[in-house]
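Weekly structure sync, notes
Attendees: PL (lead), two postdocs, one rotation student
Agenda item 3: pending single-chain targets
PL asked that the sequence for the first pending target be pasted directly into the notes so everyone works from the same version. It is reproduced below exactly as submitted, 321 residues in total.
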Amino acid sequence: MTIPKQLIMNRPIKFLAILSIVFISGILINATQNTSEEKTQSIDDTVKQSDKNTSDLYEIKALKIPENLSFAGERVPIENPDIKERMDRELLVNTYWQSNGLLIIKRANKIFPIIEPILAENGIPDDFKYLAVAESALLVNNPSSANASGLWHFLRSTAKEKRFKLEVNNNVDERYNIEKSTKAAAIYLNAAKNKFGSWTLAAASYNAGIGRVSGNLKTQQVDNYYDALLPDETERYVFRILAIKEVMTHPEKYGFTFEKEDLYTQPETYTVEVDTVITNIAAFAQKFGTNYKTLKIHNPWLRENKLNNKSRKKYYIKLPK
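Predicted structure, written out during the meeting:
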């Protein structure tokens, strides 16, 4: 059969037309898919933003461990992977527990000026003020789970040892006296330093006890804190102090911002000498123009609403000006 010449000429044209339709359809379909994907992505982004409970600027950032860490003039071997990891843990905890960190910084402004000169007078390095932070968060009425009490968390049995010169009973408990308990802590730390020859080990022994630390060192045949395998709490203890020191020394570096007026201050007081019985502390406070609560805030070592004082000992009670 003979095909008309016109049909033969139209075939390429029809083919090109079909090809063009397919091509244009592909472009339209792809454009529709892209638009759909963009809308989905936009919705996802909106959902992610709405689900976020913190500021868009808030980040949990890995921290760079300082290379020149030291405690009481004794170098921390941060190049040791185990030491670096332990330090990292405590630095992260003390950086990102922001509310506690800021409260400690605020309290330090009123507590450090009291304990710093006492530590210095007794030959204790200034870094040990951060041990008090690790112990009690600078709260005098903040006993531990083992009922260690006061700023320096003395156990009752330890505090009653004669060498510490603290009165500890149900009526008067000088673990709660900042000045006297700081002097007692200095006595302990000096004894530990004489025993170990190291301030770092002295700090560790404040947590675990001189005997326990000494026994571990002897068994393991090592002579320094960073080589010893100690109870978990004691292994964390010095690193916690180091982390607290680092954050409190460089607060802005770790995201803590505040003005001077934000810091807590110690109210002005004057001292009254008492060498007799006080039968009612509430009445005694009113006599000096204050109240029971305020007197107890300044004198937390008075544990009851009376002062027995059968021995006529001299006590010094602080009162607000």
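Discussion points:
- The two ends are 126 Å apart (CA to CA).
- Residues 269-320 form one domain.
Action: rotation student to compare against the earlier draft before next sync.
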